[in-house]
Amino acid sequence: MPMILSTPLLSEPSFLSCSRVGIFSTQRKKNVIFCSSFSLKDNGAGVHRKENSRRRFLLFILVSSGLSPTLSSSGKTKSKNPYDEKRLLEQNKRRQKENNAPEDFPNFIREGFEVKVVTSKDYKKSDSGLIYRDYEVGKGDCPKAGQQVTFNYIGYNESGRRIDSTYIQGAPARIRMGTNAVVPGFEEGIRDMRPGGKRRIIIPPELGPPVGPSTFFSSKQFEVFDIELLGIQNCQRRTIAFYSDVVCNAIE
């Protein structure tokens, strides 16, 4: 801010204006102070000329120094932590052990929505993304659309915790193929099984159940099922008066 000074060196009061320019360098910090004075008797043209000279002098200092004031960044990009795959794998193994997961259970390395499935070489992956392993192939024909299949199953989540089981319910499950009675991944896993066969399937989220507030499932996760196909039945529609149903009989 301009200040009125009275000194022996100046016969008349004068304005002394000082400007400080901060110059940032990786080697050292420089401060350039420029002061200009002019008499109260200077006319307007003289004041304007001296101010222009002061600006040119400051610009000369900045250019000749090869430096310019730096602007602070208003936002910083948060660096992402490296993907600690080993730590996440050990964490999943520990949880599966606590939940008494069965032998050769797949591991899931999850970081947010990114999931990597780790299995032994005995597992296979279909074009749809379904992962499976046959423990017993079974005998006979595979089920066809419209036929009914009877099977037992145990369902697990990624942590190896049991979420459902027909053994606990006390009776096997029955569904008709091709009627969308189960999620796509489950029906695909049964479609090429044979009676007596035992298979483990790993259903990815895109072949699993829908998620949301109106459903039982709150997040997209892989699901694991151990399935034992017990039998296949042919089905036909029966109509009696105003009543109609589907009757299924075992294949002879």
UniProtKB/TrEMBL annotation:
PANTHER family for the chain: PEPTIDYL-PROLYL CIS-TRANS ISOMERASE FKBP20-2, CHLOROPLASTIC (PTHR47414:SF1)
Name of the protein in its database record: peptidylprolyl isomerase
Region (Disordered): 69-104
InterPro entries the record matches: FKBP20-2-like, PPIase_dom_sf, PPIase_FKBP_dom
Keyword Isomerase among UniProt keywords: yes
Pfam families, sorted: FKBP_C
Key words, A-Z: Isomerase, Rotamase
Its EC number(s): 5.2.1.8
Reactions catalysed according to its record: [protein]-peptidylproline (omega=180) = [protein]-peptidylproline (omega=0)
Skewed-composition ranges (Basic and acidic residues): 81-100
Residues covered by the PPIase FKBP-type domain: 146-233
Record GO terms (molecular function): peptidyl-prolyl cis-trans isomerase activity
